[in-house]
Amino acid sequence: MGLEELGLDAQEEAVYRALVARPFVTAEELGGAGTRAVLEALVERGLASRETDGGERYAPAPPALALGAELAAHRARLGRAEAAVAELADAYRTGGLARAQRELVEVLEGRELIRRRFLQVRLAAEKSIDLLVTGGPRGTGVGEEARERTVAVRGVHTRGVVDRGFLNEPGAPERLAESLGGEGGGGGEVRFVEEIPLRLMICDDERAMLPLGGVGDEVDPCVVLRGGLVNVARALFEATWERARPYVEPHFEIGALDARILRLLLAGHTDAAVAGKLDLSARTVQRRIQALMRQAGVTTRIQLGWHARHQEWV
């Protein structure tokens, strides 16, 4: 058998094959009364002809001619079906990729939308928030507003790495203490590096948020990462955390202003640059440095720097 795909049932195919093998036979010679009805059906379909000369005999139509048209039509239908299946498969694949992309990566544009999503992601944290903070506080998630400093759920542990660009901003140490000093009672750790690769926030190892522009002042647009992509952000944070050194609050032996002066000096700033950043005169900065040297019992700035580190003044 094998002609079912062309529309012949098993009985019709058997009779047609017998007729091809024995052309010009009567229905009785081919199989009896039941065969006549099948032969008539083959005649109707153009697969056989009825000869009346010398008795009612049946002859097969040439298979290539009789079945060729049906075979071509079948191939055309099959081709259309294959094309439809391919189109559906492509649509399914494209739709699946789009769904996966929407689930894994969310692109945000517009400062208000970014701020709102930042708060939503941070509010959703239940266990941990890890931050890389650089530059000014705007858009970094540190000290932007009072409500942003208190959004973490109780028990959330926070780790933050800040760089010199952030610490040079007016009031940065105070904002840092408020924002990372243990949100919601969860406790916090802060470390310092000279330069942050990019701004970043990771919540519960499930969501990460970062600006597409990297470390620039502007944070529009941003992306929110989910799923396996968070692992990439996690690796970046951990590498930065490992090379960072602990950030300590001003020592009880010195004031907050003197601690800021020491940090800026240790970061390589000149007296004039320190004065400009702290809105002081260069002479005031020099006087305070001299006072710190006397307090430390040293005679050079290099010794002062060593003493500040050793005594954990900064």
From TrEMBL:
Residues 254-308 form the HTH luxR-type domain. It comes from the Bacteria. This is LuxR family transcriptional regulator. It comes from Streptomyces albiaxialis.
